[in-house]
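Record CoA transferase, 425 aa.
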Amino acid sequence: MPELPDLPLSGVRIVDFSRVLAGPFCTALLSDLGADVIKVEPPGGDDYRSVGPFAEGESGLFAAMNRNKRSIVIDLKTVAGRELAQTLCAGADVVVENFRPGVADKLGIGYAQLAERNPALVYASVSGFGQTGPESHRPAYDIILQAMCGLMDATGSVGGSPTLIGESVSDVVSGLFASWGVLAALLSREKTGKGTHVDVSMFDATLSLSATLVARFAATGIAPRRVGNRHPSSAPFGAFRAEDGFYVVAVLNNKLFDSFARAIGEPQLTSDPRYANDASRCLHEAELRACVEAWSSQRSVAEVNRILGAAGIPVAPIRNVQQALESEQAAFRGLLTEVPRANGLAGPELRLPSQPVKFSAYAGNRVTAAPRLGEHTVEILHAFGLDAARIAGLRMQGVFGRDADAADSAPFAQSDALNEETGRA
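=>
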């Protein structure tokens, strides 16, 4: 294992068979905290290597989701490749995969097979619908999960069409839950010495993410309806128009409403029975909104924020992602880090994200560039005790692909090695 900084997960070795987003995001979060992540790729590489946007020929999405990792190419369709993968897993603390249920078993890297040789192994499977259930063998994309879990139905304008959330939230939250599950399993292993199989379903994770939607349904038995850019049970709480853009406010109680009414020059609103409490304000939200926007539409977003902020009202401008990441707060918190490109490649430095949690006992997260395809194959195999002759023999058997010598020079090739077996999770 290479020398790593002293971080919470230093000394933890992870073998990562996952591709695209949910699984790689899980292992990226763990690698940020010092885990040594060995990314096992098919000869054509992770599909995300060929998905834009690109900068200097490299996929920005792949770079972000595979930071800090080491790449080894193994063709799991070969017998020798499967045996080599099993050797790596025997020396690992954690294995992460996002094949469709049953595929890992066929490839010789299922939990039961690996745990027999390594009983302390923590093995995380991320799939669309989990390892069990009537939908378990369906492949899944983020949009499929947003549709099936109620997120799209609950998002959008009143009377409008269901709306896709502007982020791959099902993928991301599944990766987050997977990292959480891995950490819980590692903690348990410290006490019991036993590993476990962590089963993460994107379906389950997406519904768990929808905490308030689920809570409302559980309490009422009625599916929440689309309410647009407002709160379903509070007002004024949502997005409002100013002269040159939009802003949001969050008024949740009568004390705040009194301050808000005075700040916009309408103190009489507090004595209007339509706005006597949160429930009645919500019922008459349209009339209240018209009054608020009659005031704010004559002022800039900056002026609205200055006035309401001075009155103690929770208020904010609506920014785009660029504005958020280039803000003073984001810079101070170090949400993007500039790092050199992998293996000394030319070009401007990369800007990469990292996990957001700060630890008082440790320095900042590790942030290094994502690996080139197969960049660390020989290095990793040497660390596992394979000498040059053994590695040459594996190369002759096609374990590193049909054109293994060219692997490093074609890091962005489209993957087709396992597409028919993996599906998408």
